[in-house]
Amino acid sequence: MSSVAQAPPRNPATGTPAPTPGPSSVRHLGPNWYAAVMGTAIVANAGATLPLTAPGLRAAYQVVWALSALLLLTLLTARAVHWARHSDQARRHLLDPTVAPFYGCLAMALLAVGGGTLAVGRDIIGTPAAVAADAVLWTAGTLVGLATAAGIPYLMVARHKITEGSASPVWLLPLVAPMVSAALGPALIPHLPPGQPQKALLLACYALFGMSLLMTLAVLPLVLSRLFHHGPLPLALTPTLFLVLGPLGQSTTAVNNLADVAPGVVTPSTAHAMSAFAVLYGVPVLGFALLWLALATALVVRAARRGMGFAMTWWGFTFPIGTCVTGAAGLARHTGLTAYGWLAVALFAALVIAVAVTGTRTAHGLARGRLLAPPRPTTA
Fold first, then answer.
1. What are the Cα distances from residue 84, in Å, to 39, 77, 79, 93, 369?
2. What percentage of the chain has pLDDT greater than the value 70?
3. Which of 27, 244, 335, 356 has the fewest CB neighbours in a 10 Å radius?
4. What's the mean pLDDT in 316-320?
5. Vertex 188, ends 179 and 206: CA angle to 5°?
């Protein structure tokens, strides 16, 4: 196999080689970087749901939330610069079927930081400010999520060239964003005026739950078919198998959070039905999530033994596990089963380890300029 070096781009006016961006340039800063915000924020969001009261935990969650908010602001600024200075690359990302689905990460980053602001950030900035910030971020994240949930599949149908057997768990990213809205929207309901506003948001969250769930059910069989017929994913993409946990854990979280706020918003019989649905839906879905977690972990171990190196796809380990933490914590509340509480704690420990390792490797890669360097030349 010999390397085929790509010729440097030339200035069309002069014919001289155009300057190439350095390793720290934002030209190659893709939407996948928002996964780092999601993975960081979910630590605070998930931790706040745990049945743990050890001293210092709340303060630790606040520090993580503040870090996620800082990361979000930094990335929003860097991505704005990316679009302003490198619009050609940005358009190329949208037309690349391997990159475009990551635009769903923007929506989920906004939503995750907003949810953390209300869950733990209110201790620092006050409840009124936290509610206002969460309302803005939830609204923005939901609108972006709806745009990606409709727009990315449109591009995949109308503009992308999808080859047979190329289905990837990454395809779920734009589809799960409305589910994150459905899971985090209930926290805003008690802060709305009673009556129609609260009921409207409650039912809107169920609608978001439904659209994400049904689209996930349509795409997930394609991912399974690709695995069964074409074997394991490439080594660098193996961590994306954990993305399947996202809609599973997040949907379990959503139905439990919605059931929490239903009393007083809808009739008692409807609230009772919502509470029953949270258990009847959440228990089997979380069971499937644990089965998938075992399968994905086995394939990751296999990939690690074959030389899987660090890549930004490692952030795929983080947010999906966090959604399983919040899902298990929700089931612990509604079933009264202590085992779900301990499951949430065990998954949270795995989440913290995953974020610590991935965050450290990301910081190291940035410091060395490797993660923002131009793609390596293709080989033949």
1. 27, 11, 9, 14, 22
2. 92
3. 356
4. 97
5. 35
Separation of CA 290 from chain center: 18
Q: CA neighbours within 13 Å on the CB side: how many for 130?
A: 20
Q: What is the pLDDT of residue 333?
A: 96
Task: Provide the CB-side half-sphere exposure for 71 (13 A, CA).
Answer: 24
Across the range 205-212, mean pLDDT stands at: 98
Report residue 147 as tokens: 């745009």
Q: Return the half-sphere exposure (C-beta side, CA atoms, 13 A cut-off) of residue 193.
A: 3
Name 10's bridge partners. 17
The helix or strand, by DSSP H or E, that contains position 185, with its residue range, turns out to be: none
CA distance linking residue 164 with residue 27, whole number of Å: 30
Whether the Cβ atoms of residue 68 and residue 37 lie closer than 8 Å to each other = yes
Question: pLDDT tier at 97 (50, 70, 90 boundaries)?
Answer: very high
- Please give the pLDDT value at position 12: 40
What backbone phi and psi angles, to 5 degrees, belong to 273? Answer: -65, -40
Cα gap 66→193, rounded to integer Å: 29
Angstrom distances, CA of residue 263 to CA of 21, 267, 271: 56, 7, 5
Query: What confidence tier does 201 reach under pLDDT thresholds 50, 70, 90?
Result: very high
Residue 186, C-beta contacts closer than 8 angstroms, at least 6 positions apart:
202, 205, 254, 257, 258, 260, 261
Picking from 83, 140, 77, 80, the residue whose alpha carbon sits closest to that of residue 108 is 140
Q: DSSP secondary structure string, 198-226?
A: HHHHHHHHHHHHHHHHHHHHHHHHHHHHH
pLDDT at 8: 40
Radius of gyration of the chain (CA): 21
Identity of residue 255? V
